[in-house]
């Protein structure tokens, strides 16, 4: 470190017109400030120590980086394994669901076929009942016609009897 020559500094200040007491006070203040500043400056040994600490930190950081890389690789492997297991489970569950759905669809189709068969049977029964009813309706219509004929025959017979039993009507009609 450079040394401070207080005497030369004081002489220069005096040559510049500053009193000896002021020049001396300035020189002492400057010398104290430089000493204080020197105590805050790093020495070569301080720098060497700092470099050693930095090298140690770099080594620690490199070691930590290697550990983190290893842990990340392990985690990546674990995650891949878990994903593969989950895929297998999901595929198995999907296959089971497909089987269940196919079975369910087959059961529904069988039930639909049964219902269609029952509907066909009911239609056949309805057709039979309709035919029976149509036959009965035809019979009833025939009976109604017969009843009408008998009714009119009876009415005519009653009227004829009335006409024949009444002397006035017989004369009038010319019987």
TrEMBL record:
It comes from the Bacteria. InterPro entries: CCDC90-like (IPR024461). Pfam families: CCDC90-like (PF07798). One of its GO terms (cellular component) is membrane. Keywords: Coiled coil, Membrane, Transmembrane, Transmembrane helix. It is found in: Membrane. The keyword Cell cycle does not apply. Residues 27-132 form a coiled coil. The lineage of its organism: Bacteria, Pseudomonadati, Nitrospinota/Tectimicrobiota group, Candidatus Tectimicrobiota, Candidatus Entotheonellia. It comes from Entotheonella factor. This is DUF1640 domain-containing protein. SUPFAM superfamilies: Apolipoprotein A-I (SSF58113).
């Amino acid at each position: 470190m450079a040394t401070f020559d207080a005497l030369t500094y004081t002489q220069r200040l005096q040559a510049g017109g500053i009193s000896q007491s002021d020049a001396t006070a300035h020189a002492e203040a400057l010398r104290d400030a430089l000493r204080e500043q020197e105590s805050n400056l790093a020495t070569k040994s301080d720098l060497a120590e700092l470099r050693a600490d930095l090298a140690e930190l770099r080594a620690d950081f490199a070691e930590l980086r290697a550990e983190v890389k290893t842990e990340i690789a392990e985690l990546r492997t674990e995650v891949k394994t878990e994903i593969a297991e989950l895929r297998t489970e999901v595929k198995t569950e999907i296959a089971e669901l497909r089987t269940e759905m196919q079975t369910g669809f087959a059961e529904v189709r069988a039930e639909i076929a049964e219902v269609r068969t029952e509907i066909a049977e009911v239609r056949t029964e309805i057709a039979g009942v309709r035919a029976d009813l149509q036959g009965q309706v035809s019979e009833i219509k025939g009976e109604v016609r017969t009843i009408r004929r008998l009714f009119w025959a009876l009415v005519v017979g009653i009227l004829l009897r009335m006409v024949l039993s009444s002397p006035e009507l017989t004369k009038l009609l010319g019987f």
